[in-house]
Amino acid sequence: MRHSMCFVETMTDFKNISTRQLIADDSEIERKKQQLQLVDKDNENWTETYLDRDSGDKWLYYWVDSYLHGGGYPILGRLPLPDTIQLIDIALFSDREDEIFAACRTLTDNEEIKKIDFRETLVNRLESIKDNLRQEKVIKLTGLESALNRRGILGKTITQLNSDSEYFESISARAAKLKRK
Fold it and tell me: Which has more pLDDT, 135 or 18?
């Protein structure tokens, strides 16, 4: 397994998820894919869709951090893929290390590619949990401590640019404060 640290925390709503939503462990992905039937391959987006004939569930095989040398990291996610709030829940409460990694990196990819902001919601939720190790892990995996402006700059006024900059600086400062606890 690529990612190794163990965190356990419970949450009533999360406990109702009886099956994995995301898999990022290479060997687990390959094991699961052996149980599935390939139903679609999208070469342009580097995705594959699989069907579990027994349950009827569909799974999407996709890559996060594809800009990295070597193409990034493969993820196998149950469809429909978790939305932002569900990804945050997984990052904060899953007891599976690879699922935490997959949730965090999917959040950052969704921000980059789909322009879906997660940072303020995530830092608010991180401030509400008491698990310092989990806080630190999620902050690191999402780059929450970076003050880098991730929003587009073209066509914006100086006021809009300053507002974006203040937003990322504020999130970064809050994340840094959590890491110092």
Answer: 135
In eight-state DSSP terms, residue 114 is: H
**Tokens 């990322």 -> residue:** 168
CA distance 8 to 96: 8
Q: Which residues pair with 60 in a beta bridge?
A: 49, 77
Q: Which of 50, 141, 150 is nearest to 102 (CA)?
A: 141
Q: State how far the Cα of 105 lies from the Cα of 137, in Å rounded to an integer.
A: 12
Q: How many angstroms from the chain centroid is the CA of residue 172?
A: 18
> Can you list the positions of beta strands (E) in the chain?
22-23, 37-42, 47-51, 58-64, 73-78
Closest residue by Cα to residue 46 from 78, 73, 79: 73
Q: How many CB atoms lie within 10 A of CB 43?
A: 7
Nearest to 47 by CA among 59, 65, 31: 59
Q: What is the pLDDT of residues 159-173, one digit of tens each?
A: 999 999 999 999 999
pLDDT grade for 149, boundaries at 50, 70 and 90: confident
Amino acid letter, residue 176: A
- Provide the pLDDT confidence category of residue 103 given band limits of 50, 70 and 90: very high
Q: Which residues are CB-neighbours of 30 under 8 A, at least 6 positions away?
A: none
